[in-house]
Amino acid sequence: MAKGHRSQIKRERNDVKDTRPSAKLSYARMSVQKACFVLDAIRGKDVDTALAIVMYNPRYASSVIEKLLKSAIANAENNNGLDRKDLVVAECYANKGPTMKRIRPRAQGRAYRIEKRMSHLTIVLDQKN
């Protein structure tokens, strides 16, 4: 059981904020599985290599992730004052978002459901050690 008043516990929990530069994209119109193919390829790489990977990747998700990665780099340079050469992709992940349900008419009066999935993408950068 935690000790202290509830507001003190919340204050202590909020004090440990992640100060690493990051970028988020919510409600991206792609499934988590398809986004993870590209995210797995850039995880742990330095930002120039990661940009080169997503620029020449033929998947649709790579164009969206390229824009998100450029945003994270700009956040690191402008907000945190970090040098671009020292940045690596520390974390990148895709979380499941809401699913739009659509109906496709089929033969003999039946209907098939089409699920248009969405995902929330996050890229967190860090300095090289």
Name the features:
single chain; 129 residues; alpha+beta; Ribosomal Protein L22, Chain A; 3-stranded antiparallel β-sheet; 4 helices; 3 strands; 33% strand
Folded structure, characterized:
This protein is of the alpha+beta class. The protein has four helices and three strands; from the N terminus they run αβαααββ. Strands 1-3-2 form a three-stranded antiparallel beta sheet, covered by helices on one side. The longest helix is centred in the middle third of the chain and has 19 residues, at 60-78. The chain is flat.
Please give a quick description of this structure.
The chain has 129 residues and is an alpha+beta fold. Helices cover 38% and strands 33% of the residues.
Using only CA atoms, what is the Rg?
19 Å
Strand order of the largest sheet: 1-3-2
Tally of separate helices: 4
- Integer tally of domains: 1
Give the amount of beta strand, in percent.
25-35%
Element string (H = helix, E = strand):
HEHHHEE
What would CATH call the architecture? Alpha-Beta Complex
* Helix-residue proportion: 25-40%
Instruction: Indicate the CATH class.
Output: Alpha Beta
Question: Spans with pLDDT under 50 lasting ≥5 residues?
Answer: none
State the total count of DSSP E strands: 3
**Please, what is the average pLDDT?**
93
What sort of overall outline do the alpha carbons produce when their principal axes are compared?
flat
Q: What distance separates the N and C termini?
A: 37 Å
Organism: Pseudobutyrivibrio ruminis
Protein name: Large ribosomal subunit protein uL22
Biased composition (Basic and acidic residues): 9-21
Subunit structure: Part of the 50S ribosomal subunit.
